[in-house]
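This part of the workshop introduces the protein records we will be handling. Getting from the letters to the tokens is the skill we practise here. The record below serves as our worked example for the rest of this section.

…
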Amino acid sequence: RAGLTLSADLALPKVLPAPAVVTRTPYGKTGERQSKRAAVFASAGYASVYADVRGRGDSDGTFQPYRNDGPDGAEVIAWVAAQDWCTGDVATYGASYGGRIQWLTALEHPPALRAMVCLVTPSDPFVEIPTGLPTPMHINWHRFVDGRVPQFRDDVDWMAVYRHRPLLTMDEAAGFVSPNWRAELRHRTLDEWWEPVRYQHRIGEIDVPVLHVSGWYDDEQIGTPANFAAMAAAGRAGQRLLMGPWGHAVNTTRVLGEVDFGQDALIDLDAYVLAFLDEHVKGIQPEPPPAPVRIFVMGASEWRDEQTWPPEGARSTVFHLSSSGHANSRFGDGRLVPSPVTGEQPPDEWTHDPGRPVPFITDESSAQIGGPDDYHGIESRGDVLVFTSDPLAQPLEIIGPVKLIAHVGTSAADTDIMAKLIDVHPGDFAQRLCDGMVRLRYRGGFDRERPVTPGETYEVEIPMWDTCVRLPAGHRLRIEIASSAFPKYDVNLGTGADMITETAGVLASNRLWHTPSRPSRLILN
């Protein structure tokens, strides 16, 4: 339609015509991993079509992330379905970028599309990264996809790049100029510019069986359970959710950081995918029928089948934040208690210094942002509030979404509130489970920026994503609260000014209330 040629590699099974599986990627259609994937599909009786997206690899055009991928994907599916080696039945498969563009393609309603396999799929803009800006680590990705082939990134001091100000020229600090990075920065509210790359607000328009796959430590996890739940709520048949103890590279290792999830952590994912495709593309009914939801329970090291997400029977459990106003660090008096606070308590205060942000543990050269890391050392900082429960008298399962309701204020014109859920093991290993944040200027949504009045109190809800874990008796539950998580998010300079051009920050004196009239609380399933 655009007068461009898109390039694809084709692997055919022995028996033709055959149904086809289309994978579209910005990371190159050639390579050992791609060849192995094509062989898996071809050996199972599917034609494998591995295609470079527009402007990448051997495909014509200019690469603009996600902006043309819906219409382009629909055209690729129509072309594949019309070939004499294809039965006219097409499925799609892809991870990360290749997962999200399947949803954009499905919104075009290609008639030949029979099923989708979406792995580690990003959510809509501003959902995954609620700062109004791409994460600093996203510049690493933009460098990787700069040009037509993947770029090596080992020659860059990434931590120095992430500290660069202003944000608008962070690409230059990384040694290149990225029009795509700068365009994203310039659109800091959910305006019409974002419409071609969004899909979750229209997900009810899609009626296709989908296998949703991710891991509890996938840095883009939030999109997968949300998409499954939305499709199930819309009554769409053929939805299946698979969540393992994995990072963004699903089903590749049983060990993340210092945690070994056991011998059952890895599965035969190819067999799982092929059974799903056989059912919804070839019409081969599995015996017995699989459960709609299959989840790995961390801490118990077991897989569990469920009918819904969150599971039926899960109940909301509330823990309340409490202190005498000295919850600073793990040496403070912050407590996480099951009963509401009954008397007045002084607020907890901490100072956010933009020049000394609270670290978020990650590999600065990696696109994987965080895992089950030990925050014991970071919790000794005075600008981190720590609220810890008593040792559990019996095991506690947390299965589903987590959120924090916080009553906060600041002396600055803007600030961030970060919350992290921690499993404290005997011996004080402080394992991150999940986290979330809110930037106060976006406390009412991303349609516009809302001024922050210094000294005023705001109630904010912080989605902390989903988790699935069993805490044994003797473990403790903990909440950390801070105003930075660097380099996962850009550091809020506190001025309330233009975030992409400002270079200097101010100290922010921040407060957290936990009283009967302003109860700050953790809500679990």
Q: What stands out?
A: The longest helix spans residues 269-282. Residues 137 and 487 are 7 Å apart (CA to CA). The radius of gyration is 24 Å.
